[in-house]
Protein 1
Amino acid sequence: MATQRTSFTKLQRDRAKKAKAAAKREKRLERSAEARTASEDVEGVDGVDETNGEGPISAAELLHEIEVTHQRFEAKLMSYEEFEEKKAELLGRLPID
């Protein structure tokens, strides 16, 4: 018995999957570019992070720092160990009322 050729609907599904994957990839690249620019905004003029663990920072600023850290990790700009260390340091500074 001969095998059936792929149907037109299957070809459409495959094309739709590829288009969706391409759109997700583009969106991911845009987010990583935004994360890079955001992380550059956080760093000082000499490339040193201005939030050095000293002094009071508002909870909103800390949450923003955590978000930037997550974006940098997702963009593969930092290792898992660096990510966990930075996240733990930031969460430790988060004020709990």
Protein 2
Amino acid sequence: MVFVSAASAWEAGIKQALGRLTLPAPFAVGVDASGFQRLPIAFEHAAEAAALPPHHGDPFDRMLVAQARLEGLTLVSHDRLLAAYDVPILWT
């Protein structure tokens, strides 16, 4: 099962508003059409993200790390800075 964080939807929305990303359909439509599961942000995720060491400054990436840690998931990324965190990563 593949999960997509609400943090990714939030980040995509910000990039769209800034003109840095164009999607053919709303982010949620693409996620649902792919058969992926939506992963909401919980209070526990926020607390975990806030408690992470400052290896990475991007709040969206820190949230993804926190969610992967708490939910026992593997993070998919190409950002090598995330290797400093104790979370399984599938490198792209």
Protein 3
Amino acid sequence: MTEKPIDLDQHRGLSAQRATESRRLLSEVEAHEAKLHRLRVEAEEQFVALPAATWEEAAMKAKYLLRLYAETLAGGDARTRRLIAAVLEDFERLAEYP
């Protein structure tokens, strides 16, 4: 018996190693997507449960909603995507001034 663990991946062919790595990466991506989904649900529940107390909070909700909508426009209307980007830039610029 040896003290070092044996790396079994080295004893397999290149295509088998790539397939294993692909499965591992896909599993990681799926886990991250599930976590992101849970976090989004939590955030959205908070947004709905409590009304905004300030303009800054209202803008934060609007930015989230616009980004969510923009994601659904992946290959959609370029004018709408530019408008959303402009509004988000306005929010960022105006947030710098108290």
Protein 4
Amino acid sequence: MSNKFTADHDVTVGVDFGSYLIRVEDNLYKLQIWDTAGQESFRSITKIFYRSADAVILGYSIVQRDTFDHLHQWLQEVKSQCDPDVVVFLVGNKSDLESQREITVEKARRF
């Protein structure tokens, strides 16, 4: 019996990170992007990753109602962990599956 572990995907702790430098006019900005993937099982540790964020992107799948339904909880968490002036963006993904859409554009706008 082998102790070798193989997987079809990368094993993570629920967070992916990217750091980018961008220039806007004469200013250089460092962008840090923390992708927590909305995984409920990692909610207790993901708070530390966005505590000092200047902006937050809440994403959901337009074809999976449960991802949209969890947005209220994530927004409450952002409000409790971030500064009051944090900018929050809402992004619906999987627009290539428009024919399977479960969340209407109007419902997303109301959110």
